[in-house]
Write a structure and sequence with these properties.
Length: 96
Amino acid sequence: MDDVRALRAWLERDEPLEELLSAGELRIEERTSTDGPKGRLGPDIELVLQLLGDLATVVALTEYTSRAVKTWKNNRRRLQGGEPDSEIRPLGSDGE
């Protein structure tokens, strides 16, 4: 959970994503996911980035997000050790 909040804060400060958030073109939400691996305690928390306008494309958002997550993971690994779980995937129009 701490990693999710730290990553969300990182994404909100990443320049291209911050610009989209400030312009009201992007929303970042935390959602609970129950389809994680068996044996894991508690639900997984996932971040969902939703484009609200046409200022950026899904391809651009995926590129910005991938770059920001990679940088965050490198910083986290350097400071705390270990490899945080992360997966970047587009959601369907139904949000799944």
